[in-house]
Amino acid sequence: MFRAATNENKQNATAWIVFLLLLVSIQGEMLWIDHQPMFFFGDSASYIWTAVTGWLPGDRSFVYGYFVRLVAITTQSLSSLIIVQVFLLMAASVMMAKLLMRFFQVRPWIAFTTALLTTLEPLQLLYTRYVMTETLALLIFSVYLWCVLQYLAVPRIKWLFAIQCVATVMISIRFAFIPMV
Q: Which stretch of DSSP H or E encloses residue 57?
């Protein structure tokens, strides 16, 4: 019995390593092919203006502007923002695979394939190249979903507190989450 568990752990670890290597190599190649920052003028201009001047927009996220300031202004390049957003997309994909396996009992190969296909989905690739909140919001949403599912599995007050904290961050990044929260 102990050997079977050990072999299963080794196979699981190997599957995770292969998944992570595939994810990094695919996203690295996609980043190498298309590494130019792109703009959606109303939103992107607002976020860049917040990053540069500290202006707080009334109808958009101010948090993302400060995120842009932290990542892009300190390096004097929007390319670093694109690289960070690619890593955020990969982190969201890893979270999705973990959520599928842990809470929905999906086989690892299905979860890994789904996560890889999600990172290649055209809108996700587009949002990682734009100066927009979607990629950061997706990662925060996956953390929110993790906390909600964890609360449903093990109802504890600490998970309700975590849900509310993550929901507050999620709303501050993207106002579209208000109805859901």
A: none
pLDDT of 3: 59
Distance CA 176, CA 73 (A): 26
pLDDT digits (tens, 9 = 90+) for 118-150: 999 998 988 999 999 999 999 999 999 999 999
Q: Which domain holds residue 44?
A: 2-132
For residue 74, the model assigns a pLDDT of: 85
Buried b / exposed e along 121-136 (16+ C-beta atoms within 10 A): eeebbebbbbbbbbbb
Percentages helix, strand, coil for the chain, rounded to the nearest 5?
80, 0, 20
Q: How confident is the model at residue 178 (pLDDT cuts 50, 70, 90)?
A: confident
Token pair belonging to 47: 């976020």
Q: Are 95 and 139 in contact (CB under 8 A)?
A: yes
What is the value of pTM for the model shown? Answer: 0.89
Strand partners, 38: 130
Report if residue 174 sits inside a domain: no
CB atoms < 10 A from the CB of 57, how many?
Answer: 15
Provide the number of structural domains found in the chain: 1
Dihedral sign, Cα of residue 11, residue 100, residue 135, residue 88: negative
